[in-house]
Amino acid sequence: MEDKQIIAKRIAMELHDGDLVNLGIGIPTLVPDYLEEGKQILFQSENGVIGLGPLTDDETWLVNAGGNKATIVPGGSYIDSLLSFSLIRGGHIDVTVLGALEVDSEGSLASWIVPGKRVPGMGGAMDLVVGAKKVIIAMTHTNKGRSKILKKCNLPLTAARQANMIVTEMAVMRVASDGLHLLEVHPEYTVQDVIKVTEAELIIDQVIPMKGM
Amino acid sequence: MKGTITKQGFMDLLKDGMTIMVGGFLANGSPERLVDLVIESGVKNLIVICNDGGFEDRGVGKLIVNRKVRKLIASHIGTNPVVGTLMQDGEMEVELVPQGSLAEKIRAGGAGLGGILTPTGIETIVEKGKKIIKVQGVKYLLEEPLYADMALIGGAIVDKYGNLRYHQTMRNFNTIMAMASEVVVVEPFRREAVIDPEYVVTPHPLVDYVLEDE
User: Fold this and answer.
1) Would you state the CATH architecture of domain A3-209?
2) ipTM > 0.90?
3) What CATH class has B3-113+145-211?
4) What part of A 98-137 touches B (C-beta under 8 Å)?
5) Entry pTM
6) Segment A48-97, tens digit of pLDDT
7) What is the 3-state secondary structure (H, E, C) of B124-175?
8) CB contact under 8 A, A47 and B25
9) What residues of A are in contact with residue B94 (Cβ under 8 Å)?
């Protein structure tokens, strides 16, 4: 399995029956491929869909937040941006899964700007991480060998102290008030391997093999 | 509704330096014909408010590529490389606003509110220059209202009165932009004789002009 598939598969296990979930662009869009049969998850797309279904090549004006043609599940609805973000900020989204450039031990994250290099903009990410009940970061552990999990973010923040969980191809970590707890490590790696490529301090009490691998 | 409008009639409404809101999300629900007419009219130095920078050949992106825009207010500009280039060269100002805050700022403008208080952007560079107000122990940013001289509405199913409903996801920012602008021009996606009152999303008093078909 490729790194991004490992991440998506592990995150799929974090979604529970009846959850209303927003998936960001990139790795998070792979999560539905790994949902357990029969699990009822409703996906919200911030451009205005409750009940987003799989992508399609058919003629349609229904798109997801990445602008790709998509479908809607039975019982779904179209909403405007105002209601969409009222749901997001108002705590009506159970889980949001999104990528990041950096996350730190307090759960602060950076994902929208690399000053002087790349300025895609924050889109809906700032609202999503502030408003969703649970924020899961889906990203590779390192970027060109450098840790993306830091003591303190260097890049401008998307939000301070909002991430609850970080899932990488190597490990699963939980953000708690006392710091970053290492919970699971992928069978291909050791705890030491993870520590070596993690700049942030990891609190290690009981580490189990990554679920589902 | 004042009535239908011809291409020329629409172009006559445009002025240099205007602030224009353009509906759509990554050009889904953007009024492509109206955008083309803005370019054809020759107006310039526009301030454009839109969710994003569109694409080079779609949505507001076309206005940007044709150098019609002095300032863009949007939440995301990653899909149109020209936006980044013009911004870095200092040829166009870009104000990035979190998407939910952008929606609420536009709503505030259309709803007669002096702004909205949001937790989004607290402790980030978005809070720079903005007032922080504590309510019931929680810190919020004061986001001020946005208004425009004109809103260009797309994705709409239009009836003979000028009532609107929207097709699929093309609703997005169109609903609120129709409230926050002095003059509202709609490019129909489709027409319908009369929309059942139960399903009207934008009532016709909010609409000024409907663009005539080709």
Assistant:
1) 3-Layer(aba) Sandwich (3.40)
2) yes
3) alpha beta
4) 118-127, 130-131
5) 0.97
6) 999 999 999 999 999 999 999 999 999 999 999 999 999 999 999 999 99
7) CHHHCCCCEEEECCEEEEEECCCCEEEEEEEEEEECCCCCEEECHHHCCCHH
8) yes
9) 119
